[in-house]
Amino acid sequence: MKRKGFAYMGEPSTSSIGVAPTTTEMKSRTAHLGVGVPLAAGILPSEVNDHDDKFNYALLLALYTLQGIPMGLSASIPFLIQQKVQTLASTSAAHHATLAAGGAAAEAALEASHHHPHSLAELTKIAYNAQAIFALCSWPFSLKLLWAPIVDACFSKRFGRRKSWLVPVQLIAGAIMVGGSDYVESELGLGGGGGGSVDSMNVRGLTFFFFALYFLMATQDIAVDGWALTMLSKKNRGKGPICNSIGQNIGYFLSYVGFLALNDVDSSENVWRPMFGLPSKPGVGLVSLGGFVKFMGTFMLTITVLVGLFKKEIDMSIEGGDCCTISVGNGNVSKTGNDDMETLLPQKNQEILKDGEDDNDHEIDAYEIGIAETYHRLWAVVKLPAVHSLILILLTYRLPCALSDNVKFLKAVEFGLSKQTTALLSPTIVLPLGILVPIIATKIFHGHPLKQFMWAYKFRVTFVALVDVFMLLAVRTYLGGSLILGGEGTSRMIFWFLLIASTALQAIVSSMQFNAQMTFFASRVDPAIGGSYMTLLNTFANLGGTWPSSFIMYLIGQYTVPPDCKLGNDGMEICTGGRDAYFPLQIILSALGCLWIFFMGKRVQQVAELPDDAWITHIGEIEDSKEEKQEQKKGGKHA
């Protein structure tokens, strides 16, 4: 008995460190035959016949690279916010010190302080409140399942099923980046005018700008993932996930690491300008935020135009008309709108596989069964008791790790670590470990993904959190001008050791948990609706990482109290009082993580031991059974 389903509609976003979906995850989506492909006389069209896919690999890499660009740019914004507020805080402290000294300089400082009316405590709250608001911009990637069926079901046949969304979405995104480049700088307060005041920083406008880009790129991701299934030949279809992972990481690191390195004032003056033979400009980065955004937007527009003009999707003009399948009856295609609308897929009883191949796991996508039926089947998955337990786990386990995931490096920058050093840690440590750790962990925990998940989690909320605290204390001490232990050489060695260890350990446990999570998803989902089932679970997994981000940023801003600094008689600055909320919050969250392990660990074990049948909706089998009974009744009446 065949089961009905629907095809994959795009996976949730990358994590906060920009880790792209794993090959395991993506292979689970592409294990079925490519859907949404017109067939004639049972023959696959040329686009999906076995052939040389080198050009298609390059195209997919380019498209996924475009997808990673807004992500990387948005990852650099928190460091710019932190740097701006930190500069204002230093200026404010200097003004207060000058006022305390008295004299003519004090009058000038008093006049300047009118442009900096916020106290140090207020600036600290403003910084983390701004981070909390900006963290909301990535939500579209966590929620794209809500509109993915529409992208799959509505399109222009003449232009191409995937290009109908891909081209306009990328053109809009590129135009927003080119036209809004100056807007981004002005909203962040980096342009002229009020650039020296915190009041010139409009984080809400900045958040809206990147929210729009994330929404467009989430839609583009749905289209590209679907196109990869038909663009690549059947024998190479499993390599689409590799293009996804490589391309998205290229775009992310190009716009994140590339921008921060080229924007860094010291690197620009000492490295980049001498390297390129450019004149010296002290205090100015080689590239500005607005200029970099405009360049990337132009790059996106160029690629999009080339794709629109020269890359041909399967010719659908023979069918005529545009398509939007809204509703179905018992899984059958219902046509709405144009009279010449036809399904791009064969009927259920058409054989599309080679002789001897089983198609029991063939998925039916949103176009075949309609938008309404797609949402109906997603809801059937959510109502499964096994999925209830898994959703509860996914939505709660990331909160105890929220400081390490979202605040640790911002706090390090606040303590004096350069944003360039922070950015370079990602490609040199995080990326290699993200590739190697899943391979090694899979061999060690083979067949027990949730055991791997829990082992990494116990390590993550205890030892890794402790190393993070020591790392930040070392950064604050060493970059603050004091020695950590022993002489200068020993202190420098301890500083770099803790910085690298903190970064590496977080990358290891994060990669282990993500790999375990995706492996478990792939082994439990109902094959009939595997792609969308996987997307649904990933949606909740991403939501579990998204909501703690804004929450923890808000707490840091509310409970951090800067010290009160004054000039002593000897001219040295003396600071008293103050409270850094990071360290007490880390203790609370680590304790919360231990409680989570105690209470939720048993639930994780129960979920791991559930039989395969607990994860299957049986919705297709129920519909088939109803159809058989109806046919039997009709047959009985005729008899």
TrEMBL record:
Keywords from the named record: Membrane, Transmembrane, Transmembrane helix
Cited InterPro entries: AcetylCoA_trans_1-like, AmpG_permease/AT-1, MFS_trans_sf
Cellular compartments annotated: Membrane
Membrane topology of this protein: Multi-pass membrane protein
Annotated TM spans: 165-184, 208-230, 242-262, 282-310, 378-400, 420-441, 461-481, 493-514, 535-561, 581-599
Main subcellular localisation: membrane
Record carries keyword Transmembrane: yes
Membrane as UniProt keyword: yes
GO cellular component, one term: membrane
Pfam families noted in UniProt: Acatn
Domain of life: Eukaryota
Residue runs in coiled coils: none
Cited PANTHER family: ACETYL-COENZYME A TRANSPORTER 1, SOLUTE CARRIER FAMILY 33 ACETYL-COA TRANSPORTER -RELATED
Protein name as it appears in the record: Acetyl-coenzyme A transporter 1
Organism this protein belongs to: Cyclostephanos tholiformis
